[in-house]
Amino acid sequence: MKTPPQITLKEAFLYWLKLGFISFGGPAGQISIMYQDLVENKRWISKKRFLHALNFCMLLPGPEAQQLATYIGWLMHGRWGGIAAGGLFVLPSLLLFWLLGWLYMSVGQLPSVQAILWGIKPVVVALVLAAAWRLASKTLKNNYLRAISLAALLAIIAGLDFVWIVLAAALIGL
Prior knowledge:
Elements: H1 9-22, H2 26-41, H3 47-59, H4 64-107, H5 111-139, H6 143-158, H7 162-173
Helix pairs in contact: 1-4, 2-4, 2-5, 3-4, 6-7
């Protein structure tokens, strides 16, 4: 098995900071970006390890994309790596959210600003759908997994509680 490259804490810090600024599109988009960067491009973590961590983080309550980033940061550099990854994953988004909120409250009533904000919505939806498609194409390798995924999607649409969906998937997996 090929050992992953040694990444300095500074390199990782700069990556997590960059990720915090570019990770739009909700959890699916964020996870897709991490997969593409960390597994495919940089090869900082193996596909198997990434997917194992993702599966675990999806079962935990809370934001799985941030949990995944924190875990990978911890895996690479221990406690400080986890703190840096988890913190930098949300800090730029928080600052951007704060700035956009202030702009909206200050000049949000202007028609040009409203048009810009309405124009952003379909772009975000497209980014999320593209990210979900990329991630699904990498993980749903056979019709059995596709059927479970489709059944879970239909259960979500039908309004079934998430806990029951996860338990049903676990039973099917057994």
